[in-house]
Design a protein that fits this description.
The structure is a homodimer.
Chain A (H helix, E strand, L loop, with lengths): L6 E5 L3 H12 L3 E6 L3 H11 L2 E3 L11 E3 L3 H10 L6 E3 L15 E6 L16 E5 L2 H14 L3 E3 L2 H31 L8 H9 L6 H4 L9 H9 L3 H17 L7
Parallel strand pairs in A: 1-2, 1-4, 2-3, 4-5, 5-6, 7-8
Antiparallel strand pairs in A: 6-7
Helix pairs in contact in A: 8-9
């Protein structure tokens, strides 16, 4: 039995970094070093994970896997500050691995999920997409992800980018639809909680039907008079959106006989 | 103990009508008469519910509640064919009660839910919105809906119409986002099932956070370079939609400091 815990270095403690730190720690991985410029955060992380927290890149161990959980635009800059030989993995859905040319191994450790502060989730159900510049790092990252999740897959940068774009529709855009629904309900003193069962059923339905076959409503029925009536109740970009999404639904089913 | 079952007449056997018939029947309501022009359907309904099925409006009982589950554009025509004194309720989210001027009582029995053929659901969780031209019919419909659901409320035509518009965003538009995600995934050989945990979490999150606070992703981070990169992978109305929804998200958070 291997009694030496896996050690990693963590950079970035936003939504993704803080969730991963917590789940990795719970899986027995020791986050031995954390890079942070905030003294307040440093204190908390040090207490929570027994990490050595530093604001100096030179204090990080040169040959230990470093997980970089910063936003897409900062990844390059952060990695360039690290020792050339440090094995690195970043957590972005969009940034291609070919962006990096370095001596050390470089990889991707991308959880296909939406993380919000304070909202726990079942990490074992979260797909992880793995890519690496070497077979050895790929296997190391695959094995690390498998400590957290049942759904670990290798995906190259193109596949990952396409999944990321699909994820934007799946999460960001559906969530924004809900935001507009809630905003409209609040503006009009409508009880938004009445819509919760509808939202739940919308998703449950997709266990049985494809979204293509699950569609209902005015645009699906090609009911222009209701669409116009609804649009007349909206303003600005909400109205534009209502009409464009309705048009897109109408186009999708325009060859169908049955309305 | 009342041993005489409630009897109703049913017109319309599409998604809404067939689901309601089934749940009402299971709750002990006797669908004594069904109007149908299809002989095939008539036979099935007659067997399933012990209904007398007719294609002649004059065969329907004049003083028995008639549930009209037809599409919005046919409601007026159907009701005009019925005996002037027949109490009627229709199931539309949009058609105002003031559209009808008749001797008989007229009401609304609107289930705020998406029904698809062959997909069962828990009717006890479905909100029913009730409105009627008389207090007596209102109470009758409220009581009928309460046999099916724990969530029955009175709502006037304006409130119902506003909830219906919110429901379009909640269900139809979120479902269409999922359709585009799936279409894009299929076109690009991406495994769509990897996105299911993300969709589930998107909805679960809303038990804890408002959609406003749950938002993540490129538009939320105001990341124009990823938005443009994604848009370049899309065509036609999908591209238009991607850019307009992203713009709407960016507008929503444009006054925030934190990205």
């Amino acid at each position: 039995m291997n009694t030496t815990p896996i050690k990693i270095t963590l950079i970035g403690h936003g939504n993704v970094g803080s969730h991963l730190a917590q789940y990795l720690n719970a899986s027995g991985v020791h986050i031995s070093h954390v890079f942070s410029r905030s003294e307040n955060k440093a204190q908390k992380l040090s207490e929570r994970y027994g990490s050595l927290v530093t604001s100096n890149f030179n204090d990080l161990p040169a040959h230990q896997l470093c997980l970089v959980c910063v936003n897409d635009h900062s990844i390059h800059e952060v990695i360039s500050q690290l020792n050339e030989n440090t094995p690195v993995a970043y957590t972005s859905g969009s940034v291609p691995l070919s962006n990096f040319e370095r001596n050390g191994e470089t990889g991707v450790f991308y959880p296909l999920q939406t993380f919000s502060k304070g909202k726990q989730l079942d990490i074992s159900e979260v797909p992880f997409l793995i890519e690496a510049s070497s077979k050895a790092l790929g296997e190391q990252l695959f094995s690390l992800a498998s400590m957290l999740s049942k759904k670990v897959v290798y995906a190259n940068s193109t596949e990952r980018s396409k999944l990321h774009l699909s994820a934007v529709w799946t999460n960001n855009f559906t969530n924004h639809m809900m935001h507009i629904a809630e905003k409209y309900a609040l503006q009009n003193n409508v009880d938004f909680t009445l819509l919760k069962p509808l939202l739940n059923e919308t998703v449950r339905k997709l266990d049985y039907l494809s979204p293509l076959n699950a569609q209902t409503g005015p645009a699906r029925r090609n009911d222009d008079s209701i669409i116009q009536e609804h649009a007349s109740q909206l303003n600005g970009i909400d109205k534009e959106l209502y009409l464009l999404i309705s048009k897109s639904i109408q186009n999708t089913y325009s060859k169908d006989e049955e309305l």
